[in-house]
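Can anyone check this?
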Amino acid sequence: MAAQLNPSLAACPGCLATPREAVEDAPVATRLALSLPSIHCQACISTVERGLNAVPGVTSARVNLTLKRAMIEATPDMRATDLIPVLEGLGFEAYELDLAVLSSTQNDKAGRDLLMRLAVAGFASMNVMLLSVSIWAGAADATRDMFHWISAVITLPAIAFSAQPFFKSAWSALRVRRLNMDVPIVLALVLALVTSLWETSLSGEHAYFDAALTLTFFLLAGRYLDYRTRAVARSAAEELAALEVPRAIRLGDGVESEVAVGELAIGDLILVRPGGRMPVDGTVVSGQSELDRSLLTGETLPVFAEPGLVISAGEVNLTGPLTIRASAVGKDTSLHRMADLVAIAESGRSRYTSLADNAAKLYAPGVHILSAFSFVGWYLYTWDLRTALNIAAAVLIITCPCALGLAVPAVTTAASGRLFRKGMLIKDATALERLAQVDTVVFDKTGTLTAGTPQLINLDDVPQADLRIALALAEASAHPLSRSLAQAAREAGVAPAEVTDIHEVPGYGAEGQFRGAPVRLGRAAWVGAPPSILTTAWLDTGDGNPKGFQFTDALRPGATEAVQALLGAGKQVLLVSGDTRRVVESLASRLGITNWVGEALPEDKVARIKALSDQGHKVLMVGDGLNDTAALVAAHVSISPASALDAARVASDIVLLGQDLTPIAEACDVAQRATKRIRENFRLATLYNVIAVPLAVAGLATPLIAALAMSTSSITVSLNALRLR
């Protein structure tokens, strides 16, 4: 007899060795998410994962290159702000993301769903086609009827499952009293199934089960190809919301308490430590530091922060702790208003009508009217409802827009493949159509036309002894100019001097002791140096003669060539940046751009693009920062570098995978040629209908002819699209 099981026994051997109290008291791991906009290869993934896994308290770290995001499992006391300096030390930008906001964007199943429906339609159509071949070979009477009934049993559930995207799309169009390309598709499928079932029940010779399944398979293949040409489109507004700081340190009666940002109120005092982002809009009450505003405004250099300075949510505190008094929280912050701008612009872009939909407005009514006339004509001629319905169904099936349905995705796939080899990834289904219409190109500056990082330009002009002192001070600072100086000096083989007692003075620079004398590296006013036209960090060694380290923002590879190629193609080129007017004017002059705007806020960029659109211009926006996100969505079409922040990359239609900007001009040319091929495909589909429709109306379109005609038209359209490659 089997032994009676004791329900108190542990279910696994490992649990037997662990006291129950230890299991119950084990801390629950914390899940953290970090945005990593600067990673681009497998080596980056390995470096980040090794670096994170080496941090005490981190149990696991996994990096997703597609989303440019790291997911970390850690002990409950671990915070994302503890890990960001680690990644910055490895050379990677990092920003905390709110998992609660992101949860709604990680469950996209559209690709797998389409692939599953395509597989079902393909498998069913192969089996039904085998049965149809037997009928075409001469099977008759009971054998033919049996094959027809077997085909019906296979086809009905297969169509009900596989053709759901077309049914839903057609219903959504009919519900608002309009037509799209899916309406004639659904009508053809339904009429083919009804007619085939009727014919089968009456022992008729012809049934269109195979044609209905083949049509579904070809159209699903086109839709899946279209889906694969672009990345999963996540909402840029949600990505922006996820970048908002989820927690903050509130000060009350001299006590620090970490609270959710949603619990903050206007007037609260908030402590922001070095490396943290501002959770609210407000004013600096105490402390001195520097703020990195590049992601929000495009300003290249950090801004000096002191009591009285107005700050915005999303700005990064660099060097010293700051106490902020909140003036706007939650939905009233500038970062949230930017997300609202993106959402509004997204809804505006969604009104763009694709070439396929425009064709459907003309094609669908014509097909329906022709089928109706065929039914009426044959019924009046024969007074046979069965014959009239069969011919009307044949007209709908043979004129069903299979070629039209493939016209756009076939070309888009070919063009996207060509551009991908050139370093550009097409994300949006209608991006190529919109890019072909562009006559005006608007560029952001920092991180787009330029590398976004300062570059030391007078290294050889500084005495070696001074350079060694500067390197020692620079390596103790988090300022972007200090980091650039340290990197350039190290690459030149310079060793740091023995400077002692080094510490950073928030908002000013770094100072220390060298051979008993104070030395400083930082702002001009701090070291007693004169102001400079160029971006400069000053070194004071106590000799009364400060040495200047001059920096410039290096151009991206291909920036000059891209601008000149666009101007040569007759397009208007504008430079709109949040950086200072002097810096923007200098860059515009270097690139030959005569139309430029400096000190532009995110709202100003959107307003400029809308003004151009109102004048009838089709605008291409190229940008990479948070301050560009709303403008990217407001433009007719947009491009972001792969190094852009997640929110900007998600908002754009096209992602530039490499550093070189040269492919932008070629993309415009390929887009124009792709649109030409799409129109050629529409004409080929029309020519096919001119030949096939008389056969159907004359009652000569058997199921075999319908299947062959659809296959021929689809292959012809695909071959024409391949000419783009």
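Reply from J.R.: I decoded it. The longest strand covers residues 547-555.
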